[in-house]
Amino acid sequence: MHSKPTTNFCLNLKQDILDSAFVRHFDSDEEEVLSKYKVQLSINTNIDKIKRQLEYYFSSIQISTSNFTENYAFGAGINSGNGGAILASTSMIMDQQNRFISNVAESGGAVCSISSSFAIQQSQFTNNFAFRYSGACIIQGNDLANNLQFVCISSTFEDNSCGNTGGAMSIIFNKDVFIDDCTFKGNSATYGGGALELLNNPHVQIVDSKFIHNSLKVNILTNFSNNTNLSPPNYMPRGGGALYFGEVINQNSDSQFMSHLSTQKCCFIQNSAGNNSYVFGNSTSPGNEILFFGKVSWNSIDDYTYDFENSFAKQFNTNDFNRDFNFGLFSMNREIRCDSDIDGTLTIDNTVNTVKYISTTETISNTSQVSEPTEYTYVATPITRLIKPTTQSFKYTQNPYSNIFNVYNCIIIQE
Length: 415
Known about the structure:
Elements: H1 9-19, H2 21-25, H3 30-34, E1 40-43, E2 46-48, E3 54-57, E4 60-64, E5 67-69, E6 72-73, E7 86-89, E8 92-96, E9 99-101, E10 104-105, E11 111-114, E12 117-121, E13 124-126, E14 129-130, E15 137-140, E16 149-153, E17 156-158, E18 161-162, E19 169-172, E20 176-180, E21 183-185, E22 188-189, E23 196-199, E24 203-207, E25 210-212, E26 215-216, E27 243-246, E28 259-264, E29 267-269, E30 290-293, E31 296-301, E32 304-305, E33 312-315, E34 326-330, E35 339-340, E36 346-347, H4 404-414
Parallel strand pairs: 1-4, 2-5, 3-7, 4-8, 5-9, 6-10, 7-11, 8-12, 9-13, 10-14, 11-15, 12-16, 13-17, 14-18, 15-19, 16-20, 17-21, 19-23, 20-24, 21-25, 22-26, 23-27, 24-28, 25-29, 27-30, 28-31, 29-32, 30-33, 31-34
Antiparallel strand pairs: 35-36
């Protein structure tokens, strides 16, 4: 039996793409197909209201200062329904200063990254939608590649939604996840992670980021009229208005794998798990902010939330009761790092020990009014008690004006 050589996987993949039934059936142009494979490309353009055009494999792509509006991804093919604007597989993607607005797909309303290292910087994702997972971006790694990284800096995710989990993003099987100075506002999902779904990521760090008015809603896909209660499935929890964080492994596995979340100086404000949150185990919290599940740990440093008691929940599967939830809480609620009005407008409080002065209308030659001093009670100490009233005069042991040189020497020695 003839078998293809396996010494060059990339060459085999290229030929497999050209020989695929999909290419033959649709009579795709060979040059067009190869233009998506193993390329280095910089993209700076606007793409509106068309089926997804940007699809790349084994490539290095930089996308900057571009707008992607009302694009979609549906149809036949393995990945045809993923990533309304961009699909990248086994690639390196740099997304810088772009805007993704009202894109639609089955999963990953705007972007789908598969087994790729992906970086987002100063970009906006607004009103994107996915019928299944990840309203804006799905960042899908795999358990075989242990070096994938995802970085998101100074970006905004607002009003994105999906029909399952991860209203703004789903990030799965990435070794390192780093999110800094990002805002997640008004995103929604049906079952978990109104803003973010984070699964099987060993190290996740979220710094200086804000999670505001994200929620779980039941009428994202279907209009249930006035019925706001959706019965949760018996195989998964429902909760985590902002974050849905955990790990999923084979229950029969003895793996010591643990997902670790570190949050610092983050704001969790008015996120909601909805009217029918559901967790397995003995948790009494609906997990309005974060739902943890599986073998996980969490360190919180200088984070802020309004209602700690109802904000965080830990769910246990049937065989997970003996698993520890490693939890470190430092300075929660100690300092208000952000605030939110009823309408969701974000207000940052930068006041630090301000000094109040009494104003005056007098000219500079006059003296302004000064507040009366507060009453002070002098408290005697062991030192101050040594000085007591006396009628006796001070007596020198020697003439103070004699031997001046020695006196000066004493002063010098004391200094």
